[in-house]
Amino acid sequence: MTPTVTNDFGVGYSMADVSANGGQRHDTTNPVPTDLARFPQVIGLTEDILVRHRARVLNPSTAVPGAQGRRPDSTAYRSNTLLVPLAVARDAKAIARFNKALVKVGVELVVRLPKTPRWREAVDGFDGDFPVPVLLHLRDDAVTEAAPDPWTVLANLRRVLGPEATKGIGLEHLAVAASVGMYGATYGSGAPFGNGVPFGNGVPFGNGVPFGNGVPFGNGVGGGAIALGNGARNAVRLFLPKPARRDPATLAPGRRPVVAVLDTGIGEHPWLTVGAADTDPVVEVSAEFQGLLADLETTLTDQSGGALPSLASPNDERDVLQPLLGITDSHSGHGTFVTGLVFQNCPDARVLSLRVLHTDGITTDGSVLLALEWLRERVTSALAENRPQDLVDVVSISLGFYPEHTDQSTGLQLAEAVRKLTDLGVVVVAAAGNDATTRPFVPAAMALNADGSNTGNPLLIAVGALNPSGKSVAAFSNEGAWVTRWAPGNAVVSTVPLWQGSEGPDLQNQGPGPLPRATLDPDDLTSGFAVWAGTSFATPVVAGMIARRLTELADATSVDDRVSRAGNARDLADADLTALGWRS
């Protein structure tokens, strides 16, 4: 399946404007050379976002080469950490060995792990290869005043100690939500999230202008322009009833399938009741997981500064970036929207909402890895202790990043975390990304084998976005051999929290009747529903379809049977996709 528009990431055209219906415009007056379209090389991030997330951009033209002199591709990553296996971080001799190898670089690894009782109890059940962030400090005798670059440190470690000794060590990448065309509060000196900021609205790891920069209703589309996506969290009114749920005892497995959603959390909505699992809610949250994530981030920032807004609460939050102005942030409601799509496609499921994304749509792969390891331990314990209510069947991930390499060592941490879940019979469904590129977007692309085929992990499913008709690929959607499923993700409708922000309509006047006359208020989500676009939203459609098929299959209590059951549900969902014309 081929997008109708080729994206050259700023080579020959601009994507700065937005159409009157909220779509992104693509200037077609300058065709793109096909040899430039494949890999965006420079990530355009404002200084404000880099500062906010303690991040930097890897520039291939100036970066230290990696193994065999290979230059890396562009990526973004935390500027003061590396991810190191937990067992290594706890091994003082191993850390000392690494620090000896880094003397000439003038850098040392400093391990600062949380000391809270819940963290200590939780990590006792974690695998030793679970990656944790370790701080980079300048040595006291360092002759440079420049802050250490994690990529340079990593490349030196690999060169001096070799691949086996440095296995499982990597950058802590920034990961971003795979949705496009958002409003949202600005951060810092006027750099708007969702208006020229690649991370957080279309994620264009390229040197062009990202998808979306506001939604100028009434400013028609100029000549030579095409709307790449429609819907920018625009409020809509829905007149359909709440989908009906069946008694879980009547389902074939005797319980609800559980879909874990890694996103911005869950907001208040009448369809999406939140509660403990034993109360049979639509949505379950975990104070334990949120506490662990907050412990980890707080420990790092207590040592190095630069604290981010806490993710200790499971709630989708509205105006974190500029609370004094009260404008709804660009990705606020993203998790609630994703949850609603799972619910629409499988009302009988229970969603386990894990909040890992900030309201600007950014997280790190370190946070995602913590969520995946926590889920692995939950499933393992549930199987060992015969607690079927704690099992997880599907994981929906509407985020990702473009790694600096696609070799085994670069993708090892995330690929292994996904593999551990799929080996337990958990289907992992991930967004393909929104940049009209074939560059692998992970974790979705991690089903690839070394030869480029996509059979490496059959329970890892990469989802691209279709237009509403289901008959064409959304112009923004990534594509490649690694994109294995397709579902509508452009101009889809789902749930949003019942919020009223401060932005207000562009025009409002008291008419002759009792109600004022006004244009659409982009910050008024009190209807509870909105239209949005992105592979972020095709992903939970497929996750929900798989969950729906799981309601028809008897439960499994052994690992082998769970893997077989998951494969059967995937195959049945594939048949549904084929019948709908979404899969050939």
If you had to describe this structure to a student in words, what would you say it looks like?
There is one protein chain. With 584 residues, this protein is α/β, with parallel strands linked by helices. The protein has a domain at 257-501 and 522-579: Peptidase S8/S53 domain (Rossmann fold), CATH 3.40.50.200. Helix content is 24%, strand content 17%. It has helices at 47-52, 86-89, 92-101, 117-123, 150-161, 287-304, 334-345, 365-384, 408-422, 535-550, 559-579; strands at 25-27, 55-58, 75-85, 107-110, 131-138, 170-177, 186-187, 191-192, 225-227, 234-236, 258-263, 283-285, 350-355, 362-364, 394-397, 399-400, 427-431, 460-466, 485-488, 492-495, 508-510, 516-518, 529-532. The strands form six sheets. Strands 2, 3, 4, 5, 6, 14 and 16 form a seven-stranded antiparallel sheet that branches. Strands 12-13-11-15-17-18-19 form a seven-stranded parallel sheet, with helices on both faces. α7 (334-345) packs parallel to α10 (535-550), α8 packs parallel to α9 (408-422) and α10 crosses α11. The protein is globular. The N and C termini lie close together (9 Å).
